[in-house]
Specification:
about 575 residues, mainly beta, Immunoglobulin-like, 14-stranded parallel beta sheet, globular
Length: about 575
């Protein structure tokens, strides 16, 4: 009891010694406040611009704006740290290496901008922030227009780095990691926004948004947009300093839109052991070589790509994109399951290429939807959605092929073997069209080297996850929605109204009508949809008044108020 009381007294004494230091109230400049800080202190910058290259001492410390206490987001953009005009070629913040990785550094509610660390490729790393051997948390910050030879915005070595709700815009690097270069660090980005890169450095050397080596990298609920438009197209993730890749890469619930990416993850050395991409959206991107190319990732043991949505992605001209996902002998185990591929274009093929796959225990493409995809018709075999080479039974099954151009499933003639695509739904009860073996088929087309019989007569025959569990069912990550209600008209309405829907929805999509008490009046629609206009008649016996139109799938819902004038 005495020992516990002593510990509490000591902890209280330490807490009492922690001080909040305001700049410029208590100190004339930021560096003076940092130099005077003791372990556990908080340094708060009042709104304004702080010019200089500031050094953060190796102690437990918090640095931030008044946002720390007020949560007023306007304070983030008005509290700015940047190099001084007298010496603009300087880094913004340097966190001295601590004695232990357990030493915490928290930075909250600041804009870090115009930092430069590009003169010396040995020591000049991290234009916005350089940090070593720390437990770092960055929250609600903006990193913009920073330059670093390694790590345009941030360089982190031997750190645990957690980045929450931060924005990255117009950062650049002549070599690697326009936003981050991390070495032997575990990094998590949560709810961050990655915008366009700077175009100051171009060419193949400027190759990634995030460079990471020897550690774990995770992104959750992030928005990645316009990357690659400010300069050369690049990979979003690559290895740092030419070393081995992160041990694990996990990407959950992120939205990738309007980017120019050579590929999502490029490994120039030994690849990550595990790669997970779950519940993400890829829409309206230009892709150079392919989103994920398994054969490039030497040493990768497992890749899991599940519950993602791919829409309206096209090749970057003159790059020769094969398709979005390419699987070969590497990784040794790979699952592509419950993804939606809608209106994508490719060069060799549009969506998935798989070769040397003998058993579903090691590689499988299951329960995916392929809708209205196409590839360059001039390439051998014409337009293709899925391409096979030496693929055996059980590997590609329980998928739906609906409205794809050209050949939905194509088996390469160079492999001198039959490709198996059994137990798939081809958009019609009559199965796929194939000139000799199923000329009466009204579904998508299969080529003569692909074995497709037996097939499923309905998408309802695709076994759900209660029968065949998804490889990622333990995650249950929410998917960023691709559909939304663009318009409801006329509103008010008399006998009929129309719903204009944008984006794609899966088989669990429903539109229902509820009254003011929340009672369901009618189920108006259930099932998979593509973009378009839906017309609905007022249910018989419906009384005049206010109603709520509810569109819902397993991930997302929208409600619109409508007025019925009888």
């Amino acid at each position: 009891m005495r020992k516990a009381l002593l510990i509490i007294m000591l902890a209280s004494a330490c807490a009492a010694q922690a001080t909040v230091r305001y700049v410029p109230d208590d100190f004339p400049d930021l560096q003076a406040a940092l130099d005077a800080a003791s372990s556990g202190d908080t340094v708060i910058c009042r709104p304004g611009t702080y010019n200089g290259s500031f050094v953060i001492p190796p102690i437990h410390i918090t640095l931030g704006s008044e946002y720390v206490f007020t949560a007023d987001t306007a304070l983030i953009s008005t509290t700015v740290i940047q190099p001084g005009a007298e010496d603009p070629e300087r880094r913004c913040l340097t966190a001295d290496s601590a004695a232990s990785r357990d030493t915490s550094l928290t930075i909250v509610g600041l804009t870090v901008t115009l930092g430069r660390a590009t003169e010396d490729n040995v020591t000049e790393r991290g234009g916005g922030l350089f940090v070593q051997r720390r437990n770092v948390e960055l929250r609600d910050c903006i990193f913009s227009t920073n330059r670093g030879f390694y790590g345009g915005a941030i360089y982190a070595e031997n750190c645990s780095l957690k980045v929450d709700r931060c924005e990255f815009l117009d950062n650049d690097s002549p070599d690697n990691g326009r936003n981050l270069c991390s070495i032997r660090s575990d990094v998590v980005f949560d709810s961050c926004d990655f915008g366009f890169h700077g175009g100051e450095f171009s060419g193949w050397g400027s190759r990634s948004s995030i460079g990471a080596s020897s550690g774990e990298l995770e992104l959750r609920d992030c928005r990645i947009h316009d990357v690659g438009h400010g300069g050369q197209a690049c990979a979003f993730i690559d290895h740092a300093l030419g070393g081995s890749g992160p041990w694990e890469i996990r990407i959950f619930g992120c939205a990738f839109t309007n980017n120019r990416l050579i590929q999502l993850y490029s490994s120039t050395g030994s690849a990550a052991n595990t790669f997970v991409l779950d519940s993400c959206v890829f829409a309206d991107n230009e892709i150079g070589f392919g989103m994920f190319r398994g054969w490039e990732h030497s040493g990768m043991a497992r890749a899991t790509l599940t519950r993602n949505w791919f829409e309206n992605n096209v090749p970057i001209p003159n790059y020769g994109m094969q398709g979005l996902i390419v699987l070969d002998l590497i990784p040794s185990r790979c699952v592509v399951e419950e993804n939606y591929f809608d209106s994508n274009q490719g060069y060799d093929f549009a969506c998935v290429g798989i070769s040397n796959a003998g058993h579903p225990q090691y590689r499988r493409v299951w329960r995916n939807y392929f809708v209205n995809n196409s590839s360059t018709p001039e390439v051998d075999g014409g337009s293709k959605t899925v391409a096979l080479s030496q693929v055996f039974p059980g590997v590609i099954e329980y998928n739906a092929f609906i409205g794809n151009q050209g050949v939905a499933v194509y088996t390469s003639p160079w492999s001198d073997s039959t490709g198996y695509a059994l137990n798939n739904y081809w958009g019609s009860t009559s199965g796929p069209f194939e000139t000799l073996r199923n000329p009466q088929g009204q579904g998508d087309t299969a080529d003569s080297r692909t074995r497709f019989d037996p097939w499923l007569e309905s998408e309802e025959d695709i076994p759900d996850t209660t029968i065949l569990p998804n490889a990622a069912d333990d995650w249950h990550w929410p998917v960023p929605s691709t559909w939304y209600i663009a318009n409801v008209y006329p509103n008010p309405f008399n006998s009929q109204f129309h719903v204009e829907l944008q984006g794609m929805a899966g088989a669990g999509f429903e539109i229902r009508l509820f009254d003011l008490l929340g009672r369901e009046v009618a189920l108006l629609h259930a099932g998979r949809t593509l973009p378009g206009n839906f017309s609905f008649n007022a249910p018989a016996g419906l009384g005049a008044g206010v109603y709520f139109l509810r569109a819902q799938d397993r991930y997302y819902g929208e409600t619109k108020k409508v007025l019925y004038l009888k």
